[in-house]
Amino acid sequence: MTEQIIKPDVKFINDIIASGGESVKKCFQCATCSVVCNVTPDDNPFPRKEMLQAQWGLKDKLINNPDVWLCHQCSDCTAYCPRGAKPGEVLNAVRQLSIKHVSMIPLFAKIAQDPKLIWLLFAVPIVLFYVVMRFAHHETLEFIRLGENMDQMVYHMFIPADPHMNAPFPLKMIFALTAVFSVLSAVVGVNRLWTGMKAQAGQLKSGGNLMEDIISSVKTIFAHSKFADCNVNRLRQWGHMLLSYSFAGLAISGILALIYSYLFNITGPYALTNPMKLLSQASMIAFLAGIVILIYNRFTQAGKAGMGSYFDWIFLSIVAGIGATGLLALGFRLANMSAGYAAFYLHFVFVWLLLAYAPYSKFAHLFYRTTAMVFAKYSGREGKQV
Amino acid sequence: MEKKFGVYICKGCGIGEAVNIDELKKTTAGGAKIAAEAIREHEILCSPAGLEMINNDVKEGTNCIVVGACSPRVKFEEFDFPGALTERVNLRELVAWTMEPNTEDTQSVAEDYLKMGVVKLQRGDLPEPKILEDLSSTIMVVGGGFTGLTAALESANAGYKVILVEKEAELGGWGAKLYKETPRTYPYDKLDDPAVFGKIKEAEAHENIRICKSTVIEKTDGQPGLFDVTLRTNGSTETVKVGSFIMAAGWKPYDATKLGHLGYGNPNVITNVQMEEIAKKGKIIRPSDGKEAKNVAFIQCAGQRDMNHLPYCSAFCCATSLKQAKYVREKSSDAVAMIFYKDIRTPGQTELFYKNMQNDPGVLLTKADVTGITDAGNGNLYVEAENTLLGEKIKVEADLVVLATGIVPATRAPQEYLDGLAAATLKGDEAKKNYIEGTEKPEFILNLAYKQGPELPSEDGYYGFADSSFICFQYETRRTGIYTAGCVKQPMTMVDAASDAAGAALKAIQCVEHVAKGIAVHPRAWDATFPDPMMIKCTSCKRCTDECPFGAIDEDEKGTPFFKINRCRRCGTCMGACPERIVSFKDFSVDIVGSMIKNMDVPDEGYRIIVLACENDAYPALDSAAIKKYKLNPSVRIIPVRCLGSTNLVWVTDALSRGIDGLILLGCKYGENYQCHFVKGSELASYRFGKLQETLTKLQLEADRCQLMQVAISDYDALPKMIDDFVARIEEIGPNPFKGF
Asked: Would you say B353 and B319 are in contact if contact means Cβ atoms under 8 Å apart?
């Protein structure tokens, strides 16, 4: 055992408290949490040690700690904690701070995480799409007024999706650029996290095979087998599975849409029988089912698992917002009601929020938990077979 | 008193079904020589009709009542006949519930018990309380700290005169030296001002309290109700008479200079007592350079729970450090208090204070074994620790280190001094004795003029605390009429000390009230008998003066034992010790028990075994076995005794010479964690018994025929088998060769 100089950081403790971990100081280290946790490695299990590190404000130890990400917030620990210290919520807060710490543009993390900046969060896409609508296609407002007289509503006339009609900022291009920004942010963040975890771990136990570890981790993620080990948040397994599969489906259909328009110059609207359209419709149903299950689970398990933080709820709200506005836009269009334009506009506000802030919001867990799971296997922290 | 007997046999609770009552009446009339018409039976003796039957006889002049019914431990209110001598024969628990019904053996057990009951009354007499003259009901409180003041106020408010003695010039003790106290009321989140000042004011104004400051006790002579206490105040002396004592002499902090391994000696390593002084002056200023301390480390159990220092926990230091952490945090909002503990021990409601303090982001806690405090430069220090919950050896920088040092009871130094002298004298080690006498004499507290020594005697494993370790019996000491409270007894928080003080006050009041009635104090608090030695036969062997667990027997100028009756707890240890067998109580004597043994039926065939059972734990354990309907071996006869310490070895001779095959002394556990109500009873019995067994071997009687067994009151389930095993061993040895002589 090497001697470590401990430097308590009270600011970090206060940050955890402010980020939804207000119960962190209640822990008295009985280790019930580590005993009931089904997802921790057996050796040196979490979350007990993380709770103490958090209480002492040991930022360096927590920010680059793969265990913080191996936690899936089953909340079994929170349910059984005799002192009401809610380790699940505390680790969630630590993850939030970790996201901020590794983020490419910390201001984005701040906007995504600070409830006081919620206006700014929404203001950007609201203004952005207003600009697109107003200036890219200045007959738009006129068009809406005239829309009542049209046989069928056409959303892409309202906000141009494709590079035509001399639109300088068509939707697809905005989203493509946003996606590039997100991917870049994620790559930078993942790289920082990986480097940090490596530095923190020191000498690695085993030089694992990175490719094998990635494949194995992705398999685990797709199978949702970690979620199956949870007790309190058992229902979440299905909600998360539906939602993540639907995201995959929507991502694929989105990429297909880009390919159609930019490679083959085929523009929408697409027929409902188009494979891309079919995939996106199926994904949408899964999406709606998933988010309903997740929110239902949140409310019914709040007594045991805690109510969650702003960080959780803003993310859930955006996801739910996408579902709701998407559904409304579809419904209004089929009913030929012009309120559909507003729903369509808001839909893109929400979708953009999700995409742009993906590596800064709770959505970032997609990148960072995956990274930590790979690292845990790579470093020998966790067995390869799950 | 002319004795008129009445024997009453109850048929209820299964007695009538297990025993042939007609036969029992007949044999009792014959064997115990009781007129047949004086032996009555009743279906339910404790019913109003049954009791009326007895009371009618009492009115007719019956004054010796033998009740053959349930255990004397129950229905004592029903079977209470003032003015008459009453003996309860336990036919229910020891016969009906523990023997096979309607067998010859069972009948014989019942006959023996009833006969022994009659014999006991034939030999005994009605007790008359001995009330000494000129008794005082004044209570002396020793120590004017928080506990002593509370005890004085409690006693005074109950209407008793109090003399409060404080050796310092001011009242208040440690409580007056505190900056703040841990919270006393819900929600336990705000520090309170020290409570002791209010108590000082109240005590000083109280008409029943006389306060003697700068005063020490030079000498305490006498006995409860009649203590003559010589007080010395600034050179002048005065003798006062008091009835009982509350000893609240308190504690001293452990000598921190012995804690060099925790950095004591460095000016920035201080004790929790020094921390109070600093906080009282204002900001937390560290001693070395006057800089305000912003990173303060608290080391819990400093020299505590450590065999090289204090082996015990001082009970309040965790709460104290949490409180001092609050000083640090309140005096400077950006300061950090770090607490390194073995375990956090916050008894009672202080747990809520702990929870509140834990929630402060600037109060950091971890379990740790602190391995050292080293210099970090600029007057700062590194706290080095291992076995922390953080998982590694750690090193944390602090600008001030506070050691949570523990308490040493005020009684420890005099006890160690006296014990050292006694041990040296016992070994005949003159050099050592002279050396100890040459060292500085510690402050004595009570200066008792008792043959057994001037202070409360030490107990093994109590580290100098004035705790009698009477289980279940708080406040008692081995000096009757002197009750301890507060940290001189055991480490405790001030909340506990307050209730402890009230409890000790009640005991001190009970003491003066009981001696006024001529009855014993705890544990035989109803007992009007007293040891009444036939002094003309005394050989002044002083065994009683040595063995009395309460120092009740002094010696006069000629060296003759002298009983100070009000110090006596009526255990009968002197009766057991006396080789001349001159100590008797009216209803309990060598002769009474000897006669019971002699009148027991000893069959030619089969075995007969006597159990002398301590009536405090062993006898209730037998009752409990009976309630559980466990079977007891029918060859045993159980005779209750006040304490195994009262067992006189002549009873063994009486028994064995009559042909009794074996004898069990059934008493309490002794040694560390002893359970004897009279502290030393079964231990003394064991010591005496050891000598006896040598004698038995010399007489070619097997030493195994006599055995001392230690039982706790909760061992009732094991008891029947213990007795059966003993009987089996006796059967192995064979019958007593003296049988039939």
From this structure: yes
